[in-house]
Amino acid sequence: MEIKDFNFETSTDDKDLVTLKVVVSKDAYNKELEKQIEYYKPKVNIKGFRIGHAPNNIILSRYKDGLESATNEVMIENVWNTYSDEKNAKCIATPKLSYLENKDDGLHLTYEYYPLPDITLPELSSISLEKNKYDVDDEAVEKAYKLSLQRFSPFEESELKSELGDKVYVKIEFDDEENKKYNKELTLIATDNENETIFAKNAVDVKKGDKKLLTTYVNDREATLIMEVLKVEKPNIKDDSKEEEVKKVKEGLKEHLAKRAEARADSELINDAIFNKMLELVKVDIPKGYYEMELDRSLEDFERQVSGNGMTKTDFFISVGKKEEDIKKEYEENVKKQISFDLIMAKFADVYKDSLNINEDKAREYANRLYQYQSYLGLSKRPKEEQQDIINHIMKEAENRAVSEAILDYIKEHINITEKDAGRFVANENDLWAGY
Q1: Domain CATH for 95
Q2: What digits encode the pLDDT tens for the residues 150-159?
Q3: End-to-end alpha-carbon separation of the chain, Å?
Q4: What are the protein's UniProt keywords (predicted)?
């Protein structure tokens, strides 16, 4: 197909969405229709004719709907590819077909898409970054070994103050009548992880009978609650293993931790250093409508995740001590950064496509993980059409992830990386069991 085979017009709305209206000439359409008839002709069995010898007009009269549907599918792809190549019209994701009708003057098609913004990439050889280097010494191994024992140890009530990893039973009570319906008892794991709930972060260095006054938000209004410690439980760690067995386990653990330390350093290099450096060096003008669409998708995923954990949004906002607007602002910033980074990676993938080594096995593995996650969120309960949209999104995400990993490997090979001492490696439970 050539661009002379169709007429087109474009328009752009205030959200940067481009609408492409196309009318494919009747001659061009009929040529493709004839191709479809010839393709299916050898398989057609019509009474009165030998197989494959029925006249084209007879075949068309019998199978018009199917043949026109096949022709339309070819035209949808060919028209876009021709227009994209001739006009250098590159878009974010796959263009959406919003209208299709076969009229007397030809096939009418309407596409909607967000244009790929112009991006100027930095010279990789000019970028210098530091990569953390963690020390896996005997103390790191000893702490990790105790952590592994703790996982299988029974917890027993203690009068001592809680430490990281201890179980803490609490009761939360609001000081006003209106919010008393949110009073409840919780079992917490004491932590210093800033991403955990305000309750878990305040469950360190407390003992039975202690009370803490915490500030949170209920329906976007500030509220005060009292968190009373009902009980503290500590792991009763016992190790009946023989000395030789312990020695052997620790030797294997040290090797495993060394791999995990390298994996963490590599992850920090990619997710922190490279991510932030690219956002610092490259300006990306994100189409407004695309940003809003991705933000809505992320917020919907957030709501499904909260619901999947058996919580209401109000429960969640209370637990993290934030207003809904605070969470939305965090998502707005993170979505904007992630879109920008993804588009930068897409530009790298296009420029260096002949130098990339894409791992298809990793793409399938990632798609499977995404599918399992969506199944957990209730994929099978959603409408069939919506299920297919989600599956299509999963496959696209998996493909993008594999390409992203390939380009990140390429970037790491071509930038200047120096190691810096990051101190002793402190393992968490994920480090202990990853790979086993």
Answers
A1: 3.30.70.1050
A2: 888 999 999 9
A3: 54
A4: Chaperone, Isomerase, Rotamase
